[in-house]
Write a structure and sequence with these properties.
single chain, 489 residues, mainly alpha, two-stranded antiparallel sheet, 19 helices, Transmembrane_161A/B, transmembrane helix
């Protein structure tokens, strides 16, 4: 039987599309350059001189012309201007030629575009399996989804490393370390919560993995009571949770700042305010969706007055959680241009804040404060999109590897295939055919399926999905509290 079949065809077609379409069209570039984003231009030296009534230094001008005649680059002319200078910033739409030179632009473009391609492969695979369900084919879409998660984690790691470089990032560095330890301790408390309260499925996953792994090792002639202890497993997961919490810290703070600014900008537009508040509140609903007494028991056990049965079945509730994650992440992606424009408007706010201060500032520092906002646009975009990608694609792996369905019906319980070892004759010296290699791969795959069952994947990716959603809500809520405290003083 075919191990790959249509899966391989879908993958090869998508790779061809990536090669042909990638150089000419990019969703990531379109989101930055075709959604109406406007950036602010810093004023030139002549405009600053005219606004501040600063005369031009003729002596420095002669030195600059002399250096140009000698072939050396002219030095930047520096002069002081009052901080409360009355000047308006010119605006211009963001274009592809502007963003292509920005820091982390290539990383952002690759992450988002590859995520879109992986999503297309996943959707095509799910549609195919919906019409032609088969257990023998390898689901190659999971490899695409796994690569997206790896790339998103790498991007978050790269952004976090930037705070550990240079002497000016002491505060950010300390914040990352402290929050990493906080989330490490918090995850240790979460991991000891009873499954009747927080149903992440880790206990069931651990029991299933230990039993299946012990049976597999015993078939190989190796006596074992279990490959790993529960304490070591939870300690490793807590370390991973702490590291991921450190990665989510500054993206969450950044998103909270942009959300806070957007609420002030759109005070008179109720519909946009409703969307913004809904996008902020949905991650909280995702967090409590795994708290059994207030979610599953309320919707699948309790019978309300006037009804003869609960509102949802257990399988329908599982599907509802996954769909809610997808809707939340899509809504936040749709609102991303608003958040990015709120960040670009920071250049204007910096000029307004300087007007409230007394004293003077150099023209170079004034221009740097405005130019730096656009320079870090792709960094901020990565901070916005990478956590969304982590949550969304974790949910995809949770749905597929956990054996859930989209229609809310009971999922098919995979049959436990017996682990069989192919017998190889000692006298056989001829080269193995392709068919024999495929059969051996099929046997090895069946052996892995007996160890990594649906219960294992449900526990592993169920907890990972819930923890990513929790980190997203916790970090943004911390940022909102920070903005509320310091802006009200």
């Amino acid at each position: 039987m075919a191990l790959l079949g249509v899966q391989l065809v879908i993958t090869l077609v998508m790779i061809s599309v990536m090669q042909k379409l990638g150089p000419h069209f990019s969703i990531a570039r379109w989101l930055l350059c075709s959604t109406g984003l406007v950036r602010y231009l810093y004023p030139t030296d002549s405009e600053l001189r005219q606004a501040a009534n600063v005369p031009k230094d003729k002596q420095k001008g002669k030195k600059g012309s002399k250096s140009q005649s000698n072939g050396t680059a002219p030095t930047k002319e520096t002069f002081h201007i009052p901080k409360n200078i009355d000047i308006d910033l010119d605006t211009i739409k963001v274009s592809p030629l502007d963003v292509i030179h920005l820091r982390f632009y290539m990383e952002y473009q690759w992450l988002l575009d590859f995520s879109i391609y992986a999503a297309v492969v996943y959707i095509a695979t799910e549609v195919y399996h919906g019409f032609f369900p088969s257990k023998d084919e390898v689901n190659l879409s999971m490899l695409w989804i796994f690569l997206v998660i790896i790339f998103a984690s790498k991007m978050l790691l790269s952004l976090t490393i930037q705070y550990f470089k240079g002497e000016e990032s002491v505060g950010e560095r300390s914040t990352c370390i402290v929050m990493g330890f906080v989330y490490f301790l918090l995850s240790m408390m979460v991991l000891i919560v009873d499954e009747n309260t927080l149903e992440v499925g880790l206990e069931t996953a651990y029991s299933s993995f230990n039993q299946s792994a012990s049976a597999f090792l015993n078939k190989q002639g190796l006596s074992s009571n279990g490959p790993i202890s529960k304490l070591i497993l939870k300690l490793c997961m807590a370390l991973w949770c702490g590291v991921l919490g450190a990665f989510f810290t500054f993206p969450g703070l950044r998103i909270a700042r942009m959300h806070w600014d957007l609420l002030k900008y759109y005070q008179d537009r109720r519909f946009i305010q409703l969307l913004l508040n809904l996008a902020y509140a949905l991650p909280f609903l995702l967090v409590i969706a795994w708290i059994k007494p207030v979610s599953r028991d309320y919707l699948t056990v309790r019978i309300f007055k006037g009804f003869t049965e609960p509102l949802l079945t257990a399988s329908a509730f599982d599907t509802l959680r996954i769909v809610l994650i997808i809707v939340t992440m899509i809504l936040k992606t749709v609102l991303m241009p608003l958040y990015l424009q709120a960040y670009l408007d920071m250049a204007k706010r910096r000029v307004e804040e300087l007007k409230k201060e007394a004293g003077r500032i150099t023209n170079v520092d004034f221009q740097k404060q405005i130019a730096a906002v656009f320079y870090y646009l792709c960094v901020v975009t990565l901070q916005y999109i990478a956590p969304l990608v982590m949550c969304l694609y974790m949910a995809m792996m949770y749905k597929t590897l956990g054996g859930y369905s989209w229609n809310g019906m009971s999922s098919i319980v995979e049959s436990e295939a017996e682990c069989s070892i192919p017998e190889v004759a000692a006298a056989e010296t001829a080269a193995k055919t392709i068919t024999e290699n495929v059969q051996e791969f099929h046997l090895a795959l069946d052996s892995l399926k007996t160890v990594f069952t649906q219960d294992v994947f449900r526990g592993l990716f169920g907890f990972s999905t819930w923890w990513c959603c929790f980190l997203y809500f916790a970090t943004t809520s911390l940022g909102i509290c920070y903005q509320t405290y310091f802006t009200s003083r």
